[in-house]
Amino acid sequence: MAAFERFVSASQVSYERRFEQIIGNSPALEAVLEQVERVATTDSTVLIQGETGTGKELIAHAIHNISPRCGRPFVRLNCAAIPLDLLESELFGHEKGAFTGAIAQKIGRFELADKGTLFLDEVGDIPPALQPKLLRVLQEQEFERLGSTRTHQVDVRLVAATNRDLAEMVDRGQFRSDLYYRLNVFPVLLPPLRLRREDIPALVMHFVELFGRRMDRQIQDIPAETMFALSSYPWPGNIRELQNLIERAVILSNDGVLPNPLPTAPTQSVIVSKAPTTLRESERALILQTLDGVRWVIGGPKGAAAKLGVKRTTLIHKMRKLGIFRPSFENGNGMPAAQAKPVSLPHSE
């Protein structure tokens, strides 16, 4: 079973999104990806907001990957992970002897990202004393290294991310309003996993394959009760929590069966006899659901292959392997005829 990773070959750039590793096709996620497609071709600053673990760095990568700067540097910095007294040096660099311990020249992240994209994660943690310098480089595209009077010009596209409410921080005087407005040119709000539950089965299968391959464990069955529990859980830690729990479940698996890694299972009675119980059945159900949603259009930017993030030929191969056939459209209203017999897939779409 292959994971549904969003990717595109060089010949498909004009037709399909290049959203590598972004799993899912829920309406909430699709709305975000539509915004990403609109802003990526510009040089505008993007502010990605969302709860911890929602995949902000993946969205930043996607913006870079489908922008004209693709192929140029993508440089990242987690502002919350750097001590405050070293953050300025990390951003702008320093000269030898600029401060105690500066035994050599250091190139900062803005210089490293020249002609490319700089991703500043947890931008809300930048201290007030440093915010004017960040504002200047965003507005003027110039700065000086610590210990130097030489001005450096750069061409950097900034993508920032935070899980904090910057507008509220502005009201409390903890964040400069002019910097906030400069960062908030194009805001992108990522939905929490609890608002895109349709994507949970695909994410589960992706992580099962990922960790199964890493640990050399063959996971063949996902019990319907386990998938229901995972789909019903509120996921306060979002995708990162899901990833960690699936890793735990793969470690605890026996005889190729994925156990329920949640601390407590749902107590309500649920009829699950018709739910998919194997990875093959789960994958088949996901493909059928997607095909129904696009009225069985396989190719093109709005087709099922693009929605699932695979090549058209790959999807056709999967459909044949899983015994999925296109229904005949004989009832005149554009929907599959209820009693229509399946017909063979063509060799090309």
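Next protein, fold it too.
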Amino acid sequence: MGRLGVLLLAVLAFMGTLVTMPRPAAAELAVDQAGVELLPDMDNVYYWNDVLLEVFRRQGGGPGPLARGAAMMHAGMYDAINSATLSRTGSTPYNSYLTLVTVGHNVNQNLAAGFTARDLLIAAFPAHTSFIQQRFTERYGSSTQTLARQLADTVVNNMKAARNNDGSSATTGYTPEGVAGSWRPTDGCTAVDPHWGNVTPFALTSGSQFRRPPPSPNYSSLLNNSTYASQLAEVRSLGRRDSPNTRTTDQTQAAWFWANDLDGTYKPPGQLLALTETVAENQITNGLRLARLFALVSLALADAGIAAWDMKYLTSFDLWRPETAIQQGSINPDPTWEPLSATQSGVSFSPCFPAWVSGHATFAAAWAGIMRSELGDNVTFTAATEDPHAVGVTRTFSSFTAAATENARSRIYLGVHYQFDADDGLAAGYNVADHVYNNYIRPSS
């Protein structure tokens, strides 16, 4: 059954209407030797991406750990499907990420990929084990196959070995510097994942590999810099919570459309993975290539998070948010100024980590860089969002670059970033994407 059929069933079920959808004819169904129906491999990848996004909504927290879990799952699924292709046909068009193993030509690749996705999701998000197992059972029932289990175990064990000591479980406190220009938590929040820049990347040599030079050598010189003054004035005007005379309706919509900062949404990495699905449904018809695309995107997003957090916390430039600069700074201070950004309760709030660089911009460019390398840049698509301030809103873009640029710029409209945060995040993200695409899971010929 195609994805449209699945969606129709869900809608009809919600409406209380029972309709029996026709199943494919017996000749259309591929089965393994044990009689286990082989699910369409593209649907299998989409299914687990949707499960992943639901885990994001339940997990919440900073984007770095979410992106790490996505990379583990999608890179693992790709290795499982790629290895199954080799096992069945004796060759594969792509190199592996970590694992390439043959287990026998009768392997059920979709079951192997399902075992892999389930086990790696549980490894990354153990608090959601019951939910993940439930979704596995809904998809495969009690299906099992020795070859599929062997293949999945090899892939899973190799991924776990690569990530077990990657630094993601470290806990580090943060002590604000307490000088003008330096970041301090807003509204009493706790610094989010200050250690994340030290996490072992999936593809980069280190989190600092593509570190950008800061906007100024030190805080003092920044605060006396004309570029900083003009950018502060811009966000003061465009990013104010009540800014009807300067921020347009379209800019306000873009600000909320790309936000997804709140727990309960799929967060920025999830939105980009959902967009990958939206685009792929119209561009890709091969299951192995689809799995490869999701793996490349996820690897780039994971390393983008590490690279952004390296610049946020591990340099000498932990920049204060516009909210603090405008309320407490020396340039025309306004203690009443509030950003458009808000918490679940509607209270204005800036994200709880330093401003430079923009994580949204870094993630957006990492995503766009992979997508345009694989599919070309001039692809028109319509995107959606889960931010509660933009319910039902869609936006259409004529290129991946245009979407990433708007994503980065939206943070100024939301009142939480300066333009150089966006510019440096975009530059770093594109560097990450190029490195991932040019060096990992390349064509084997």
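About the second fold: Residues 63-89 form the longest helix (27 residues).
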